[in-house]
Specification:
Number of helices: 1
Number of strands: 28
GO molecular function, one term: hydrolase activity, hydrolyzing O-glycosyl compounds
Protein name: Alpha-amylase
Order of helices and strands: EEEEEEEEEEHEEEEEEEEEEEEEEEEEE
GO biological process, one term: carbohydrate metabolic process
Pfam family, one: X25_BaPul_like
Number of domains: 3
Strand content: 35-45%
CATH topology of the largest domain: Immunoglobulin-like
CATH class of the largest domain: Mainly Beta
Largest sheet: 6 strands, antiparallel
CATH architecture of the largest domain: Sandwich
Mean pLDDT: 89
CATH superfamily of the largest domain: Immunoglobulins
Radius of gyration: 26 Å
Shape: elongated
């Protein structure tokens, strides 16, 4: 979740006889992910029932989960006696790093009315630790799973309800289970939801038990595909690429007042020189972008609609090579010497985001959304 920030305005000068060149800023390269843990322990007040010498022992091998290279998820199954238990996942045989309810610090309650076989799961990518009694174990099975690394009989395989590489997770506990990937090549695929790692219970179109497969199309290689499963209605929603879905995706928003890709010409310009401002969004993510312009001479602001100048093109940013973007533009005539301040209003259906200079000095460069 992003926190709102008090953002300022970008500055645009139109002064007779003054022209400042644009200054390109370096691009940050994402830091590589850390290696996974050497062990994951189900640690809690149930351990003495499962072969440990005591409880809350982070280093007890008897309750170690096993890493599954095919599923890319840590797993383990034990018969747990009836009772009201609590547990969490301890990494590397210590309490230095541990995860509980909603991938946080609280213990997870496990209440059993009878002795029960319980399977525990831990995903180090999301830090979700859960079990098949507290959570629905839902997998999106379909014709795309071989692209994710699912295997059967040592060969790439599709329609595998027990392949957790497409595991739908409800980390925040709101009843909506989600999975995202950028690993699929362009093409048309089908999928549906299977529960409990088998086909006994599955849901297709409209949440119908055993219903028809749900088709979706990935527009370009490595476009983001989002799967969302409602555990009450059993409806699976699949969004491939970016779409008008009442959600402005902040990662796609960008304007750099010092980069001529976004502002041409850069810096202060002679009066009468038109200035083109551009703003970037993910391809098809925004339904409109507007420029909020404050005219210092007039002491008033106006809202200028922007139009798409380039669609479905490179995002021109390290880390977004797999994405496609749209660039929106508006040209200001700047007929007289003036000082303008501007920010952007980005809409996707019912949702709106704002993008502006976020430096205390209001000296331009990259901005930030709010």
């Amino acid at each position: 979740m992003y926190r709102s920030r008090n953002l300022g305005w970008f500055n645009l000068l139109a002064l007779a006889g003054l022209l400042l060149g644009a200054l390109a800023l370096p691009i940050r390269v994402p830091v590589a992910l850390a290696a996974g843990p050497s062990s994951v322990t189900i640690a809690g007040d149930l351990q003495s029932e499962l072969g440990c010498s005591g409880n809350w022992q982070a280093d007890c091998a008897a309750t170690h989960l096993t890493t599954d290279a095919v599923d890319d998820v840590w797993q383990g199954t034990w018969t747990v006696p009836a009772g009201n238990w609590q547990y969490k996942a301890a990494l590397n045989d210590a309490w230095t790093e541990s995860y509980g309810l909603h991938a946080g610090s609280d213990n997870i309650a496990l209440n059993l009315g009878a002795s029960t076989s319980v399977k525990f799961y831990y995903d180090n990518k999301t830090h979700w630790i859960t079990d098949n009694k507290n959570s629905v174990i839902a997998v999106v099975a379909g014709s795309f799973q071989s692209e994710l690394g699912c295997i059967k009989d040592a060969l790439p395989a599709d329609w595998q309800p027990d392949c957790l590489r497409s595991w739908l997770q409800d980390v925040d506990g709101d009843g909506t289970y989600t999975f995202e990937t950028t690993a699929l090549p362009a093409g048309t695929y089908e999928g549906k939801v299977a529960l409990n790692e088998n086909w006994d219970v599955n849901y297709g179109q409209g949440g119908t038990p055993g219903g028809a497969n749900i088709a979706f199309t990935v527009p370009v290689n490595n476009a983001k595909v989002s799967f969302s499963y409602n555990a009450t209605s059993h409806v699976l929603t699949i969004l491939a690429g970016h779409a008008a879905d009442n959600n402005v995706e902040w990662d796609g928003l960008r304007h750099d007042s010092r980069d001529t890709l976004y502002r041409t010409p850069g810096g202060a310009v002679p009066a009468g020189t038109p200035v083109t401002l551009r703003f970037r969004t993910f391809h098809n993510d925004a339904t409109s972008v507007k420029l909020r312009l404050y005219d210092l001479n007039a002491g008033a602001q106006s809202v200028v609609p922007m139009s798409i100048a380039a669609s479905n093109v490179s995002c021109f940013q390290a880390g977004l090579e797999s994405e496609r973007c749209d660039f929106w533009a508006a040209t200001l005539p700047n007929g007289t010497p003036n000082n303008y301040w501007y920010r952007f209003i980005v809409s996707d259906g019912t949702k709106t985001a704002y993008y502006a200079d976020n430096t205390s000095a209001l000296d331009g460069g990259l901005g930030a959304p709010s």
